[in-house]
């Protein structure tokens, strides 16, 4: 599953998203933008670790611009140059947005999902954990996610 298609597969009633893409070279601003534009309004908790990926302030500005209005908790981490940036609460998110207001978020990508299977609508849970697959090449690690322990998509 390509990172840019994860958003197309998120259940619309999802309340808790925990996404770990630490050191995934495939994760760039376009992939984050695709995910950001697909975040369900139902999300209350967003946790993302994008450190040491190709995500820049532009990708983060896009993500920040599309965080759900009723968000209760946020913990987003990414790298900017040699600095690791942590947005660990709603006040940090508000401050980050204000200090980066000159950055224009990326528009919604026109690309369609690569996988035509229906979204995980049958997911009874309201929480989803997505992490890179531990084995294989770096491309494989960035192209798989785990919905729950032992279940790979």
How far apart lie the N and C ends? 6 Å
Reading the helices and strands in chain order gives EHEHEEHEHEE
Portion of residues in beta strands equals: 15-25%
Helix percentage = 10-25%
Query: Uncertain segments of ≥5 residues (pLDDT<50)?
Result: 111-125, 131-153
If helices are DSSP runs of H or I spanning 4 or more residues, what is the number of helices? 4
User: Structural class of the helix and strand makeup?
Assistant: alpha/beta
What does the largest sheet look like? Answer: 5 strands, mixed
Arrangement of strands in the largest sheet: 4-3-2-1-5
Number of strands: 7
Mean pLDDT: 77
Shape type:
globular
- Radius of gyration, whole Å: 14 Å
Chain-wise SSE layout:
Blueprint: E1 16-20, H1 29-36, E2 45-50, H2 57-65, E3 73-80, E4 83-87, H3 90-99, E5 127-130, H4 138-142, E6 146-148, E7 151-152
Parallel strand pairs: 1-2, 1-5, 2-3
Antiparallel strand pairs: 3-4, 6-7
Helix pairs in contact: 1-2
Notes on the structure:
- This protein is 21% helix and 22% strand.
- The chain is built from 4 helices and 7 strands.
- It has helices at 29-36, 57-65, 90-99, 138-142, and strands at residues 16-20, 45-50, 73-80, 83-87, 127-130, 146-148, 151-152.
- Helix 1 runs parallel beside helix 2.
- The protein has 153 residues and is an alpha/beta fold.
- It is globular, with a radius of gyration of 14 Å.
Pick out its properties.
alpha/beta, disordered C terminus, single chain, 5-stranded mixed beta sheet, 22% strand, 4 helices, 153 residues, two-stranded antiparallel ribbon
